[in-house]
Amino acid sequence: MSVWDEVVGQPRAVGTFQRAVLGARRGAEDPQAFTNSWLVTGPAGSGRSTIAYAFAAALLCPDNGCGVCPSCQQVAARSHADLTAVATETVSIDIKTARSLVGRAANSPTTADFRVIVIEDADRIVERSSNTLLKAIEEPVDTTVWVLCAPSEADLLPTIRSRVRVVPLTTPKVEDVADLLERRHGIDHETAMRAAREAQSHVGMASRLVTSPEAWRRRDASLDGVLGLATVGDAVRKAQEWTDIAKSDGEAHFAERAEREKLETYRDLGLEPGKPVPRKLQKIFRDLEEQQKRVAKRATIDGVDRILTDIQSLLRDLLMLKLQVGVPLVNESRRGELEAVANRAPAWHTIASIEAIALVRERLAANVPPQLALEELLIGYAIGSS
Ligand SMILES: [Zn+2]
Which residues surround ligand 1, an ion (CB under 5 A)? Predict the structure, then answer.
C-alpha cells in the first residue's frame, strides 16, 4: 500500500512527485527533482487535490508515503501538524487567509522534515491576496512546500504562475476510474463502468454516484427532464425545480457546517453558546454570517453546474449519434431513447443547445440568477425541438 494508490490514471505526474520526494531528502542523488513551489493543473475531477495530498503525505512520511504510518493517516485526516490544507468553499481566498498562510509558511515544521501547504482552489486567490502570498511562494523557507491546485495555468495570476513548477494532469480513462471504484467501494464491474462513464471520468462525481443512490436518481431525473421537454411551460417549471434541488442540496450541506463554525467561534471568544454576545464582539458574528451566505450561494451554483454537466453529456451523445461516429456514449444505458431523439432532432438544434450551455455558465459566473439562466437554456431547447 502507498499514498499513491488513490491517484487514478496519472503515471507521469506521480513519477514527477515521487522523484521530487526522493530529491527532497538529505544527500539526494537528484536534488533538482525537488522544488518548494508547485502547481497541479487538470480538468475538474482529474484528482488535483488527491495527488496534492499524496505528495504532502509522501514528503511528511518517514518512509516516503507508506500510506499506513501515523503520519500518513494524519495527512489523510487533514490533521497533521505540519500540513495546512486550504479548501475554500467560498468564491475567493481573502486577504486574511492569505496573511495567516504567510505566517505559517515562515515557521519550521514541528515533527516532519517539511511543512506543506496545499491550496485546493488556487484559482480563487484574488489579486490582493496573491500579492501577500507572492513573496512567501517565491522565496519560501527551505522546509516549506507550497502545492497549489487549479484547473489550468491560465487560472492563476501571472505573478504567481511564473514562480511555481507545473505538474499537468490529464482526464483519467473510464477503465481506470471504474477500477478505483471497484477497489474502493467493492461494487461490481458493470456498475463501476457505468458510473465512471456517466461521471465522464470525474473521480469525485463517480464516487458520489455509487455511494449516493439519491445523487444517481437526481442525475437520471434531470436527463428525463430534458428528453421529455416539449413546451415553454415545461421549461419554466424544470428551471424552477432544478434551482430548488440545487439550493436545498447546498443548504443541507452547509447548515451543519455553519452551526459548527458558529459554536467554534463562541468557544474561541470564550463565550457560552446561545448567550448574548457583547456589543464589541458582534461584528465577528456578522462577518461569519456574511461569509456563510457566500458559501451557500456558491453551493447552489455548484449544484446547477453539475446539472449542466449532465445535460451536456446528453447533448454530446445526441450529436455523436447524429454524426454516426460510433464512439461509446456517456449515457450508454439510454441508447435506445437517445437514438429516437437523434432521429427527429436536427443537428443544428443539438449544437445550438451545447453552445447555450456554455452561455449559461458565463451568465452564472457573471452573477445572473441560476433560475433565469436555466430558464433561457431550457426554453431555447423546448422551442427548437417542437
Ligand atoms: Zn507513512
Answer: 61, 66, 69, 72
